[in-house]
Design brief:
It is elongated, with a radius of gyration of 23 Å. The chain has a 3-stranded parallel beta sheet. The protein has a two-stranded parallel sheet with strand order 4-5. By secondary structure, it is mainly alpha-helical. The chain contains 14 helices and 5 strands. Helix content is about 55%, strand content about 5%. It has 2 domains: about 230 residues, HUPs (Rossmann fold, 3-Layer(aba) Sandwich), CATH 3.40.50.620; about 80 residues, Tyrosyl-Transfer RNA Synthetase, CATH 1.10.240.10. The structure holds tryptophan and iron/sulfur cluster. Iron/sulfur cluster binds next to helix 10, helix 11 and helix 12. The site of tryptophan has 12 residues, from strand 1, helix 7 and strand 4.
C-alpha cells in the first residue's frame, strides 16, 4: 500500500484562536490528522515579519495557540505538532531559496502590497516582510509535502511555492525531483460572523475566543448586531439577514433553529432570548475544549516538552530533505545528522 500523503500547514501565533479559526483551519486539521501524515506548526518566525519591533508577545502567543489547538483535539500523537523556530532547517532552506528567487516574484505576490497598506503604521519595507512568502515556500518544501491545507487568502503563496520548486528542480536536477510540487487543499469554512456582523476576524476586533469564559461569551452575544428591523420587541424580524442566526446555523440544532425562525418572524421571542440560545450552543461547543485546555495550561512546561518532541520528529523529516537539497546543490555534506539515521532515511 502507498504511504499516506504528507500534509503540511502552519498557523501564525497572533494570539488566542477564535470561533472562526475553529470552524475553518482547526476543524480541518482535526479531520486531516486522522487520514494523512500530518505536520502542523506554529509559525513564530512568520509573526516576526510584521511584529519585529516588539517581540515580547511571541512566546506567550505561541503557547496560547498550542493550548488552543490541543484543547480543540489536535493530538500530538496523531500528527507532528511543532514550533517553526525549533526546526532551524526552515531558515537554511529559506536562505538557499533566497539565492534563486527573482525579486519580482515576491513583489507581485498580492498580499505584499495589500498588507503594507493595511498595516500602514509599521515600516514593512523590510527584507523579511518581502521574503515571508518565500519562508512559507521553505516551510512547505522542507517536508516535501503533497498537500497544503490553506484558506483562499494563502493560495498565491502555494502557487509561488510551486514555482520555486520548479526552478530549484531545473537548476539542480535529480531523479526523481528533489522538491515535488505541492497542491492546495482548500479549507472549507462556513460563514461565521463576528459580533459586529462582519466576518469574524482578529483584525476587526469582533471575535469570540475559544478560551472565553462563559460569562464573556454571553456578554459578547448581548452586544451582537441583529436584524436592524427589530427595533422594538414587537417588531418582526428576518433570521435570514441576521448574523445571530448565522451562529445558530453552526451551533444550534434543527429544533432550536426552527424555534428561532418561528419566534423571530412572529415577534413572539425577543432578541435577548434568541441570543441566549445561541450562547448556549457556543458554550456547549467550547466547554470540553476549555476543560482540556485548562488541564494543559496548568502545566506549561509539559506543553513545551510536547512541542520539543514534535520538533525532534519534524527535524528528522526536514533533515532528510536538506540532505537531498545539499547534495543536489553540490554543497558540503553535514558531518553528523541531527536526528537518528534510521528515522531520517525513512523519507
Ligand atoms: N502564512 C500563513 C498564514 O498567515 C501561515 C503559514 C506559514 C503557513 N507557513 C505556512 C500555512 C506553510 C501553510 C503552509 O496563515
Ligand atoms: Fe436575530 Fe434572533 Fe433577533 Fe431574530 S430574534 S433578529 S434571529 S437575534
Amino acid at each position: 500500500m502507498r504511504a499516506a500523503q504528507r500534509v503540511l500547514s502552519g498557523v501564525r501565533p497572533t494570539g488566542k484562536l477564535h470561533l472562526g479559526n475553529a470552524m475553518g483551519a482547526v476543524n480541518n486539521w482535526l479531520r486531516l490528522q486522522r487520514e494523512y501524515d500530518c505536520y502542523f506548526f506554529i509559525a513564530d518566525w512568520h509573526a516576526l515579519t510584521t511584529d519585529y519591533a516588539d517581540t515580547s508577545a511571541v512566546r506567550q502567543n505561541t503557547l496560547e495557540v498550542a493550548l488552543d489547538l490541543m484543547g480543540a483535539g489536535l493530538d500530538p500523537e496523531q500528527c507532528v505538532l511543532f514550533v517553526q523556530s525549533h526546526v532551524p532547517q526552515h531558515a537554511e532552506l529559506h536562505l538557499l531559496f533566497s539565492m534563486i528567487t527573482p525579486l519580482r516574484w515576491l513583489e507581485r505576490v498580492p498580499t505584499y502590497k495589500e498588507q503594507q497598506e493595511n498595516l500602514s503604521g509599521r515600516d514593512l519595507s523590510t527584507y523579511g516582510f518581502l521574503g515571508y512568502p518565500l519562508l512559507q515556500s521553505a516551510d512547505i518544501l522542507l517536508y516535501q509535502a503533497d498537500l497544503v491545507p490553506v484558506g483562499q487568502d494563502q493560495v498565491a503563496h502555494v502557487e509561488l511555492t510551486r514555482e520555486v520548486a520548479r526552478r530549484f528542480n531545473q537548476f539542480y536536477p535529480a531523479q526523481p525531483d528533489v522538491l515535488p510540487e505541492p497542491k492546495v487543499l482548500l479549507t472549507p469554512s462556513p460563514k461565521l460572523p463576528g459580533v459586529d456582523g462582519r466576518k469574524m476576524s482578529k483584525s476587526y476586533g469582533n471575535t469570540i475566543l475559544l478560551a472565553d469564559p462563559e460569562p464573556e461569551v454571553r456578554q459578547k452575544l448581548k452586544t451582537m448586531v441583529t436584524d436592524p428591523a427589530r427595533v422594538r420587541r414587537t417588531d418582526k424580524g428576518n433570521p435570514d439577514i441576521c448574523p445571530v442566526f448565522d451562529l445558530h446555523k453552526v451551533f444550534s440544532n434543527a429544533e432550536t433553529q426552527q424555534k428561532v425562525r418561528e419566534g423571530c418572524t412572529t415577534a413572539s421571542i425577543g432578541c435577548i432570548e434568541c441570543k441566549g440560545w445561541a450562547a448556549d450552543g457556543i458554550v456547549r461547543y467550547i466547554a470540553p475544549m476549555q476543560e482540556r485546555r485548562a488541564a494543559l495550561a496548568a502545566k506549561p512546561q509539559q506543553v513545551w516538552q510536547t512541542l520539543h518532541a514534535g520538533a525532534e520528529r519534524a527535524q528528522q523529516r526536514a533533515e532528510a530533505t536538506m540532505r537531498q537539497v545539499r547534495d543536489a546543490m553540490r554543497l558540503a555534506p553535514h558531518a553528523a545528522p541531527i536526528a537518528s539515521e534510521k528515522e531520517a532515511t525513512r523519507a
